[in-house]
Amino acid sequence: MNQDYVKPDNWSIIEEGFDVERVKSSESLFSIGNGAMGQRANFEEMYSGPTFQGSYIAGVYYPDKTRVGWWKNGYPEYFAKVLNAPNWIGINVEIGGEKLDLFKCKSVTNFRRELNMKEGWYQRSFNVVLTNGIEVSVKSTRFLSLDLDEVGAIKYEVTPISQDVEVVFTPYLDAGITNEDTNWDDKFWDTYDLAHKGNTAHILSKTMKTDFHACTGMLNQIFLDEKATDIYPKVEISNTCVKLNYTLEVPKGKTATVVKFGGYTVSLNHKEEDLVTASSAVLKQASESGFEALLDLQKNAWSKIWEMADIAIDGDVKAQQGIRFNIFQLNQTYLGKDARLNIGPKGFTGEKYGGSTYWDTEAYCIPFYMATKDQVVARNLLTYRYQHLEKAIENAEKLGFTNGAALYPMVTMNGEECHNEWEITFEEIHRNGAMTFAIYNYHRYTGDYSYIPEKGLEVMIGIARFWHQRATFSTDKDKYVILGVTGPNEYENNINNNWYTNYLAKWCIEYCIENITKVKEEYSNDYKRIIEKTKLGEEEINAMAQVAEKMYFPYSEKHQVYLQQDGFLDKELITVADLDKSQRPINQKWSWDRILRSPYIKQADVLQGFYMFEDKFTSEELGRHFDFYEPFTVHESSLSPCVHSIQAAALDRMDQAYTFYLRTSRLDLDDYNKEVEEGLHITSMAGTWMSIVEGFGGLRIKNDRLSFSPKIPKEWKGYTFNVNFRNQILKVNVSQEGTSFNLEGNQELIIYVDGKEINISPDTLITI
Amino acid sequence: MNQDYVKPDNWSIIEEGFDVERVKSSESLFSIGNGAMGQRANFEEMYSGPTFQGSYIAGVYYPDKTRVGWWKNGYPEYFAKVLNAPNWIGINVEIGGEKLDLFKCKSVTNFRRELNMKEGWYQRSFNVVLTNGIEVSVKSTRFLSLDLDEVGAIKYEVTPISQDVEVVFTPYLDAGITNEDTNWDDKFWDTYDLAHKGNTAHILSKTMKTDFHACTGMLNQIFLDEKATDIYPKVEISNTCVKLNYTLEVPKGKTATVVKFGGYTVSLNHKEEDLVTASSAVLKQASESGFEALLDLQKNAWSKIWEMADIAIDGDVKAQQGIRFNIFQLNQTYLGKDARLNIGPKGFTGEKYGGSTYWDTEAYCIPFYMATKDQVVARNLLTYRYQHLEKAIENAEKLGFTNGAALYPMVTMNGEECHNEWEITFEEIHRNGAMTFAIYNYHRYTGDYSYIPEKGLEVMIGIARFWHQRATFSTDKDKYVILGVTGPNEYENNINNNWYTNYLAKWCIEYCIENITKVKEEYSNDYKRIIEKTKLGEEEINAMAQVAEKMYFPYSEKHQVYLQQDGFLDKELITVADLDKSQRPINQKWSWDRILRSPYIKQADVLQGFYMFEDKFTSEELGRHFDFYEPFTVHESSLSPCVHSIQAAALDRMDQAYTFYLRTSRLDLDDYNKEVEEGLHITSMAGTWMSIVEGFGGLRIKNDRLSFSPKIPKEWKGYTFNVNFRNQILKVNVSQEGTSFNLEGNQELIIYVDGKEINISPDTLITI
Q1: How, if at all, do strands A61-65 and B705-708 pair?
Q2: Given A490, A677, A678, A694, the catalytic residue
Q3: In the CATH hierarchy, which fold is given to the domain comprising A31-307?
Q4: Any CB–CB contact under 8 A between B67 and chain A?
Q5: Which residues of this protein are catalytic (chains A, B) (predicted)?
Q6: Chain-centre distance of CA B16, in angstroms?
Q7: Is the pTM higher than 0.80?
């Protein structure tokens, strides 16, 4: 069943009513994060029902030993796993001698969760009758601070309804946690110090093997009837857990409150010996501000994010809620401050998928971050890959490539490969092209060329070398071919001449050579350094150029389309429309061989290439390829519909564009794939943003300028979005009547609208 | 390093000198088996050095939970694993208060092992000086009885050399054993009863999940100076182990002997409640005969096997030893008495590879068993697959096939699939064709058609249905294609139109239809039963015929050869000769993607088809295909060289044929692949037999008659082999001078020699 229990609301995610079956799903949906850490919406108090506990620290991982059925040469020995971190949110609550546990109490009423996306906080409230007959109302509010990103804050309030009661709050820290996802039931954390002082406590622990040290800390404030108390806690310490007990006599109708500040300081950001001091300092700073003041800062910080990133939709609350949820989650996951971090496919909402970084970042997320943040953020994302270049070269060496050829991993945390299916790890090599494309895309959008001589060209050379070595010459075809690959459509494995891969390979080599020339001419110092480092010579460049020039592309004269791969036309070309619905999703219903020999496309493949290189094809060509491939596309990847949506819009097929848009925007909120309990689909959320801005809004970069072809689904009254373009913010408002632009900046901007040049002056509304 | 320490000998495998590094390899090489059970050459006495313990019972397996990195629909949940069974051979020995342990003693001299293949026994002898300074000589002789196939016998003799000593023999049974190969460290055996009585003891245990019950029993006889003693043992019993201690005062120069009869009775062959009685009875029978008499029976039984199966080579001791080792091991593994059993790739010599049955049986082993045993043996091997037909249909259903289509598993014990790599499990479907081919081959050789109406046709129909459904129609080619397969050459995965697979599919359908017609006309009762059971109708038959008729075969006009698969000519066609030796074996040096896009062939593929259907092609065609494919074949499967050897001989290239022959005949004896410690390559041993009989001897069946084209490697003086053909034994002797035939039988036989008809009368030597 789809879980569509979320109440429609423009700015909040709201759940009403308590259902144990929904707990794990809601734990994902109501997750909070601040780019540095994240927290699933687990209850603070004890819960003995089914739950999936998750606290995550950005950049902290564990190299779990690889598990495969049959080992193949080249597989990574270990791969980085997202780690469940020590629990800092726990607050056990005892009421009249009975432990509060929503799974075991007599009744729960008025249960409500709200994730306020506008202001960046999460609240849960309910009335509960315990088995001892006592009734209380509970309200818990929490957030992870954007300002102090090592701190989370919880305000947990209990108000007796039926009678005066004794309430015992036991805020605790617990490092005795486990991962749901572990290959060998390894223990991931080693705890080596627990201490407390007054209302504070901390635990020092480190990850096994990777030796990340973390100080998990807490500082509690206790209030009775909104007045601070000075009760001193009782302390319980075990091997991995420290608990502080506060006992309060609470009159009926009055409220007992614990405010708990907690969080992590980690050795990624501090010296190991300073972790405790740093933790104490930041918790002290938070507590001195107080919960409410810190929350005000939070609201303010989120308001600034929304100013740049919001998309407002008029006339469709569910669509509005959907797009804001996506934008909110992307910002909870990655804020671009730290080039060591990246955008995990589940963000801070679950453990599934080892590693944090896929080609999703380069192909889908960078456009979002470029347009909604300062351009340093996208540059940080590029730098992340630059920092992994050595590892990418090692990775290619494992597969037999030489001479500085680089193959970026399919999935990674620290630059090492985290995946181990040969058809993906060794063959889904198109990912390498996305790295070069992202550099190109960054330059095209920001106009900042400096990244290329400084860092980008080295990456491009490693990648061009890879393609040069990976292509082989077919005497039979008198062309270079690329054999044995998996394209973006992962429902084909080990195929020959995947059009997308071949096209990207050719383009990567050509773009690299073009930039070698430019850097040689215009940045001679950088050029010297790069040539010295890479040992790139004329002969190699010429050989590369030769591969690009003579690259083979499968093409059907009959259909006048590029073929997804050699032999595509040998398939039984039955369209998705003619496929019995009981057979879908095919990845759940069919064995792998059946999927492979079918014509069905998991995710845009040839069309992905048309999306990335739209300028190289006519609109008529796009239409023909769209008509050929769309009928076979099952969109069983969350990354697929956005590309089709953008192309349908470009082809003026707005109904279709809107249908594709709907498939992604509420994917998690309505739990289409019945798996939201495992976590959210973070990276595909950027695709939803693209569907609106690039699809409906028609945003492109043409001749160094912004270009729009605004369209609007007939279901909407209007929508607005903002674009940060070279340090000026352009606000775009599209309605059924027309489009208006408003520039926040200080210099005139020339844009194209439907191909026509428009001059926009700062702070002047222009309507078309 | 190759381990070529085995001494050349015509009839025995001999090792001299003790080397701890060789212990595990020798444990494999000196393994014994009697078709019902098997035993690695582990020491009877305690050994604390590196060892791989293995006792095996035919047909007893454990369904280990499947382990894969990423699950695919259709994988088997569990797969059958070869099980290490309770230890019955153990005899701890204490000499002068010190435990005998060759890993810890002061010195070992005159260490010698002999596996006497002519007579079917294994002996180990040595002199040892213990750390207490005492020197003794030890000799242990053991065999697994062919006559009483639930019994093994050991004669273990200790003779003090330096002084009189106290010797304590502790023969024991131990069910507390483990498997080297287990996915989840599961416990495989549950022991529920241990008992002793006088000189006998037994353990009852059962396998977890599969519930095979086994009674492991022993009966000991103690001798001093060759005289039976009546000392009564002390008994030690633990949870899984029962030990009997015998203490003897042995004068210098005299011999203390324990004769231990042991073995298994299992619930496959007895009622569960009768296991102990059956065990006691058979051990009593053995002990009443006595060790020597039982050994005489053993020699006699092996002599009968050799009478039919021996190949004698004159002028090359190592070749002689090699081929006899192969024939010996095949007979130790499978004797054809029980249609529930099959020929495991490691026989009873190791645990590697789950399951016992591969297409090796049908493609390589059946010819050996047909020619060297009564024809009921080959029929039993066919019946094994008939008994698994229901499971093969279920297996096909898991992959989406319907209506009684059958897909035999890649690897199996009980009919269920035991493998879990999608490119093998789901795609190496050519195995299915081998089942039909074996039926055809059996009929061709034995002339016994009765198997087809009784059992074979049902199997053929299930298989033909599979091919019918598995082929798809390519509008582009106007032909039926078979997409996404792995051929016999496993260095190509998920390829389209593997010539061998397509050819076999077409042939299976045609041969099935041919037999439907024949059975309809000649066996109307069987026909009725089969049609009723299979619900096969005219329409389906016609549709099948259509697929066969319009099957596509990739062909190169330029090279005038069938292509191994679509796109083969796109590869960089660098021959093995031009491949740097440091790159080989490629399966150890290269990552999987590199292997896949290379032209290198692991094992005969197109040529395998030419081998099976030789009659359908001219010698000129064979030569052309051989010349095209052989240069790309790396023979990294032990099953490959035999086919090339046979074809080289057919093409009169005897030097090449001999080179290929050498690659297999001593594969294990000389440990080419440095892995003999894991067990022997049993099934490929049948290929070595084929290389001589079908290759050098040129044996074929033509027009219902035996046909020969005898050739001889120039390195040999002569060779002889025997062929059981339709209940008469033809002895063939090939020398550099000519070939002679001698028929043991009672009716005249017409054979072809080099195409000419020859009449052979019984017991008349004919020389050509």
Answers
A1: unpaired
A2: A490
A3: Beta-galactosidase; Chain A, domain 5 (2.70.98)
A4: yes
A5: 490 (proton donor)
A6: 27
A7: yes
